[in-house]
Amino acid sequence: MAFPDGFLWGGAIAASQAEGGWQEGGRGVENVDLMPVGPDRMAVAMGKLTLPLDDTEHVFPARYGIDFYHRYKEDIALFAEMGFKCFRFSIAWSRIFPNGDETRPNEAGLDFYEAVVDELLRYGIEPLITITHFDMPQHLIDHYDGWGSTRANEFYRNYLTAVFGRLGNKVKWWLTFNEINLMCSMGEGLGVFAEDKQEMAQRTAEAVHRVALACADTVRLGHQMCPGAKVGCMKMSSFAYAYTCSPADQLEVVKHDHDMDTMIDVQARGYYPRYYLKALERKGVHLEITEEEARLMRENTVDFISFSYYNTTCLSADPNVNAKKGGGNGFVGLQNPYLAETAWGWAIDPVGFRILLNQLYDRYNKPLFVVENGLGTTDEPDENGYVDDDYRIDYLRDHIEQLETAIEEDGVEVLGYTVWGCIDIVSAGTGQMSKRYGMIYVDMDDEGKGSLRRSKKRSFDWYRKVIASNGADLQ
Ligand code: BGP
After folding, report:
1. Residue 376 CA, closest ligand 1 atom number
2. 54-107: per-residue pLDDT in tens?
3. With CB atoms 3.0 to 4.6 Å apart as the test, which of 10, 229, 303, 322 could cross-link to 86 if both were Cys?
């Protein structure tokens, strides 16, 4: 059998897309609370538009999510019924440090996560915790420029210490920053803003370096404070093909990969890749790395590599290429004429999944963990809330088959597989609820209206059988 004993089948969510309860338990305001559903969402994320906290023109889904904050017991019971071995969720930083710069943690926030962990363990489900999934206390952005601040590492260390201190004896699996390559690809994602281009480049590199140090700190403290802990990094897959076999197109792919690999290379190898340092030099950016920092990074590399995989894309060096723009997670290239697409225009590419698994394993020679994969689309429930989602089963089956082949035929070492949005949650990219990934339907619309009732889709029973047979029964 391809899947090893103890393979961690399960599902994944993130705090800002599921929890809600934004003003409960002492939680502070976060950047994600100010991101509305609809066309203004990305402008806010990019710092081009600032909405006041009391804005009434927009709907802000991170404030209510799917109310996991109050319903986690009911939801975890459903995950247990599916037979989950593992459940990935993230901690909202502002539940632990509401403003981010306090010296003592908010105990009520820690209580909440400990209760979630205890509930999972009660069913024998391993928690897999993303320490930071796109969120940051808004106070740190307003008053300290986020990761642009020289105090950012001190604040983050307090956060890590509080979380590991409370959960370290119960949780073995940890992830540093979600999709760190996306988060670090623009200064705006780090809370850094500057009018002048050169200044922005300099400040972004400094902020990125603080994030790299925070990752090393996470591994160091995680190993120190959590017995037997495994700490991994998390990459947005960003897999691109050359649009044609022209060498110029292939070179575009190499450059793109460099951009996307930097933060994973750092965490896996313990130092910056030369292509990154050369790129900084070309931009006239000076990055100072002290001997102590270099040692911290060198001595605290991650134990495994995790990643999200939804789609692939294509790149061309020709600005006038006759091809349509494609959609995709986090990064947009050209449409691939060989592949079908989802309703949101994301190319469906199960073989690309196998290729990526091979590439990552060849590059890092560390175990992999697939922590996000799934189909985001609309569902039509019947009057009982049941959804006949064969299309979702097809997507998942095709990907799991390729995963199996990568393990069995290519010898890739994989620790687990968690379906993204195993219960319907709010989309990170668009803020829509109508873009659903779940095997559990949640009755709520894009405005946040609905009964929030949970009901099973056809994929619920299908996934239960997949897990029960350890991947042998995919029918
Ligand atoms: C990744 C994120 C998730 C997630 C997923 C699907 O980028 O880590 O938070 O939501 O993609 O994207 P979307 O929600 O935009 O469909």
Report:
1. 16
2. 999 999 999 999 999 999 999 999 999 999 999 999 999 999 999 999 999 999
3. 10
Model confidence pLDDT, tens digit, residues 388-442: 999 999 999 999 999 999 999 999 999 999 999 999 999 999 999 999 999 999 9
Buried b (16+ CB within 10 A) or exposed e, 449-466: eeebebbbbebbebbbeb
* Known catalytic membership, residue 408: no
Which of 259, 266, 346, 256 is CA-nearest to residue 308? Answer: 346
Whole domain around residue 339: which residue ranges?
8-468
pLDDT value of position 414: 98
Query: CATH number of the domain that 67 lies in?
Result: 3.20.20.80
Model confidence at 1: pLDDT above 80: no
Token pair listed for 328: 């995709």
CB 204 within 8 Å of CB 190: yes
Q: Which of 235, 350, 356, 236 is nearest to 302 (CA)?
A: 235
Residue 475 lies in a domain: no
Whether 130 is in a domain gets the answer: yes
The reply to whether ligand 1 has any atom less than 6 angstroms from the CB of 311 is no
What pTM value is reported for the model?
0.98
**How far is 156 from 268, CA to CA, in rounded Å?**
20
Per-residue pLDDT tens over the stretch 434-444: 999 999 999 99
Give 12's strand partners.
88, 420
For residue 81, the CA-to-ligand 1 centroid distance in Å is 25
What is the rounded CA–CA span in Å between residue 229 and residue 214? 17
Q: Which of 30, 119, 126, 179 is the catalytic position?
A: 179
Percent over 90 (pLDDT), the chain = 96
Q: Which of 26, 189, 203 shows the shortest CA–CA distance to 107?
A: 26
Residue 2: inside a domain, yes or no?
Answer: no
Which distant-in-sequence residues (6+ apart) come within 8 Å of 16 by Cβ?
30, 32, 33, 62, 65, 90, 92, 133, 134, 135, 428
d(CA 14, CA 183) in angstroms, rounded, equals 15
Q: Let me know: does 412 contact 471? Beta carbons within 8 Å.
A: no
DSSP 196: S
Q: Are 417 and 373 in contact (CB under 8 A)?
A: yes
Average pLDDT over residues 343-361: 98
Which two structure tokens, joined as six digits, stand for 224? Answer: 């120190």
Report the separation in Å between the CA atom of 16 and the middle of ligand 1, taken as the mean of its atom positions: 11
